[in-house]
Design goal:
The chain is of the alpha/beta class. Helix content is about 40%, strand content about 20%. It folds into 2 domains: about 210 residues, Aldehyde Dehydrogenase, Chain A, domain 1; about 190 residues, Aldehyde Dehydrogenase, Chain A, domain 2, CATH 3.40.309. The protein is built from 14 helices and 17 strands.
């Protein structure tokens, strides 16, 4: 299938997602328990990012002239790798599935799609859309991703495996495949630190910063790989910031996720039990609950109240594991080097956040923070446009930006003499 045909089919797929926006929104909320407003935001992002994937591809995928000398031309050209296996997670079931499937498709890789078993309604809608618009010669849905990966790779001659998921899933894949020629593109877990320095209040109000932190940590009920998961506050700023954090967390509307006012989604009984275990273990080690720390009934379902923990330390599981739950541990620091040491004391390196009013300090943070994506005094926007790398155990390859194409293809260098 040539590029122009792929382009036409990709545009048809994007239009399909837009036309069935309402059905996708309801499916996300039903499957994930996400507040309906956040499901609407996921679909809006998915459509916008799909358009970017398609439109940017024409500028990256074709031959590029590297150098010319007389009649000698040096070129580079990208070619498809071959069959790809896309394993997508449950927390953003439509948006991240489109990232994986559409990116591989537009690069010319036939796609075998295996989504999370936790999102059956979304999986059905997506499989129908992909089959109808991408075509059976380029796309095949193979059920949820609890299957034997080794068997799938051998059966379908998979040359590239694309995953956004947990480190546990990645370890299982590596163990199953062993020594293999299959290329692995994996974005994995995160435990993103956020550093707040007193100087930040010169540029932004404590309320603004607190609202941002709470909005990041408790979005999708804490189930975002790149959101703030650990908060470090300079001692001189601590007493000023904490009341605003408590106020912002307690202001989140707790209602059934199907209601437009809901700002906190449904959790399973297992997830609620995990919240109770993490908070209980932290309190045994000296943490104090500033707000939250309890189960909340939402009519026919339940969730866990947004929870802020103070007096935390790095012996607590809530700080050294990736926590996909509405819990935010807080640590006070006294000096810059201590803050950096605490922030980097993790096996993850996906994202980091900093609030500072000191320009020189911001430059130093860029050097010192061991993360792939660093956000200083602001949040993330249009993530797929900007590349990230596999820092520490948060991944093994570059993704997004132009890497969204270069990592999914093979590069061929051509040196050609042209006598014409």
């Amino acid at each position: 299938m040539n590029y122009q045909v792929r382009l036409k089919r990709a545009h048809a797929l994007i239009q399909h997602i837009a036309d069935y926006r309402h059905e996708f929104v309801l499916a996300i909320t039903k499957d994930v328990g996400k507040p309906i407003r956040e499901s609407q935001e996921e679909i809006a992002s998915a459509i916008k990012e799909a358009a970017y994937i398609v439109n940017r591809s024409s500028e990256v995928l074709f031959s590029r002239e590297v150098d010319r000398s007389g009649t000698i031309v040096n070129l580079q050209r990208l070619f498809p790798i071959g069959n790809s296996l896309v394993l997508s997670p449950y927390n953003f079931p439509v948006e991240l599935s489109i990232w994986g499937v559409l990116s591989n498709f537009i690069c010319g890789n036939p796609v075998f799609y295996s989504p999370s078993e936790r999102t059956p309604c979304c999986n059905s809608l997506l499989d129908r859309a992909f089959t109808e618009h991408l075509g059976r010669e380029a796309y095949r849905g193979i059920g949820h991703n609890s299957f034997d990966v080794y068997m799938l790779v051998r059966q379908f001659n998979i040359k590239l495996l694309w995953l956004i998921g947990s480190n546990k899933a990645a370890d299982q894949i590596r163990e199953a495949l062993g020594s293999t020629e299959t290329k692995l593109i994996m974005e994995l877990g995160g435990s993103s630190p956020c550093l707040v320095f007193e100087s930040a209040f010169d540029k932004q109000s404590p309320r603004e910063i607190a609202n941002f932190i709470v909005g990041s940590r408790f979005y999708n009920t804490g189930q975002v790989c790149s959101c703030i998961k650990r908060l470090y506050v300079e001692r001189q700023a601590y007493d000023t910031l904490i009341p605003h954090l408590i106020e912002a967390a307690e202001a989140l509307e707790q209602a059934p996720p199907e209601e437009g006012r809901s700002q906190l989604g449904r959790l399973t009984d297992h997830q609620i039990a995990e919240c109770e275990q993490l908070v209980g273990q932290a309190c045994m080690l000296g943490a104090e609950i500033l707000t939250g720390g309890n189960k909340v009934n939402l009519g026919t379902c339940a969730t866990y109240a947004p929870t802020l923990l103070s007096s935390c330390n790095h012996d607590m599981q809530v700080l050294y594991e990736e926590v996909f739950l509405p819990i935010l541990p807080i640590i006070c620091f006294d000096y810059y080097e201590e803050a950096i040491s605490l922030a980097n004391d993790t096996r993850f390196g996906l994202s980091g956040f900093c609030f500072t009013g000191d320009a020189a300090q911001a430059e130093q943070l860029i050097e010192d923070m061991e993360v792939s994506r660093l956000l200083i005094n602001c949040g993330k926007e249009d993530g797929i446009r900007f590349p990230i790398d596999g820092f520490k155990q948060s991944g093994n390859a570059r993704q997004q930006g132009d890497a969204n194409y270069t990592e999914l293809t093979r590069l061929k260098y051509i040196r050609q003499a042209r006598p014409y």
